Amino acid sequence: MRLEQVTLREIRMRLRAPFETSFGSIQDRRILLVEVCSEGLSGWAECTAMETPSFNSETIDVAWLMLREHLTPLVLDKDIASARDLPEVFKPIRGNEMAKAALENAVWHLDSQMRNVPLHRLLGGTLNEISCGVSLGIQPTIDKLLALVDREVSAGYQRIKLKIKPGKDVEVVREVRRRFPRIKLSVDANSAYTLSDVDHLKKLDEFQLLMMEQPLDWDDIYEHSRLQAQLDTDICLDESIHNLRHASAAVEMDACRVVNIKLGRVGGHTEAGRIQAYCAARGIPAWCGGMIESGIGRAHNIAMSTQAGFAWPGDVSASQRYWEEDIIEPEVQVTPQGSIRVPQTPGLGYQIRERRIEELTVGRESHDTRSAQVSVA
């Protein structure tokens, strides 16, 4: 294929309720969408970089700059045999995985339409239905958290993840486990602790957690290996894993026993596929993490989660948990059994609501084969 146009759009969407983690609270989302065009077809993807460099070092503004100045020129009006070739094309650019993922994943979507196959089949996925979990932000009171857990368990979700931080951890988890003794329960610290907290973190062992996600520094592997040796609870790494090299190092060092694969964080579908295949071959559970995506990012996560390595329920929940109105149709829905039926039509399986996107757009920039550029504030 030959890309004729690449368009960047910033849209603004408001979450139904604030979402709090150990590094802050968010309700209003700035979202960067990438659209690629060729032969009358459009491929779409979402850049999962946040507004600030709080999750990792990327931000939406940095990703926009990288896409405009460095990544788009590498693919515009170039022959591309397959989206799977793009990591090699992007190799001269170090880091910036979320910007790379947005462009690569848009090409995957385009490629799947050109081949007239569902994206998940093109990725090698085999599942027609995926299991789902939910991530619950830090709440002001335990009673409010218990009510949220009860709502999501009643909705059928197969795994509950609690965000934790110092002062909002052991007692909170104890109450949730007491009220819900049989649910699959995990916690996510988003790097809120240090190795000196090991005795405190060991208190979480009594609650039979599915996993403890990213307790230590966002870029650490070694100290997680020291912590894992002292815990019964399995550690899952998230922010630390940017590629297959990191995943294999973490597994071989026993720094984790579970791997969270976030499509943007690892650079796109190609690298995500490599990591899940590695995990599957070694019996390491992997699962799909979420970044509060719109429906476009959520649809890509659904396609990714159909691959064999995704052994546990991911953070792929219904559109209505986050948005009053999504930018795809139909919106993502979860069955009463806590699963999502994977669409079988070519591409993402969901229609892009371009009119709705236009209403939400606050900035646009297009690059085409004539080197024209149009910006809209």
What is the compact description of this entry?
The chain has 377 residues and is an alpha/beta fold. It has helices at 60-75, 86-89, 97-114, 119-122, 142-154, 170-179, 198-201, 222-228, 244-252, 269-282, 295-304, 354-360; strands at 5-21, 24-38, 41-47, 129-131, 134-136, 160-163, 185-188, 212-213, 235-237, 258-261, 286-288, 328-329, 339-341, 351-352, 361-368, 373-376.
Features:
alpha/beta; 377 residues; TIM Barrel; 2 domains; 31% helix; 5-stranded antiparallel sheet; 7-stranded parallel sheet
Give me the secondary-structure topology.
Layout: E1 5-21, E2 24-38, E3 41-47, H1 60-75, H2 86-89, H3 97-114, H4 119-122, E4 129-131, E5 134-136, H5 142-154, E6 160-163, H6 170-179, E7 185-188, H7 198-201, E8 212-213, H8 222-228, E9 235-237, H9 244-252, E10 258-261, H10 269-282, E11 286-288, H11 295-304, E12 328-329, E13 339-341, E14 351-352, H12 354-360, E15 361-368, E16 373-376
Parallel strand pairs: 5-6, 6-7, 7-8, 8-9, 9-10, 10-11
Antiparallel strand pairs: 1-2, 1-15, 2-3, 4-13, 12-14, 15-16
Would you mind describing this structure in some detail?
- There is one protein chain.
- The protein is of the alpha/beta class and 377 residues long.
- It folds into two domains: 5-116 and 352-376, 2-Layer Sandwich (Enolase-like, domain 1), CATH 3.30.390; 121-351, Enolase-like C-terminal domain (TIM Barrel).
- The chain has twelve helices and 16 strands.
- The chain is globular.
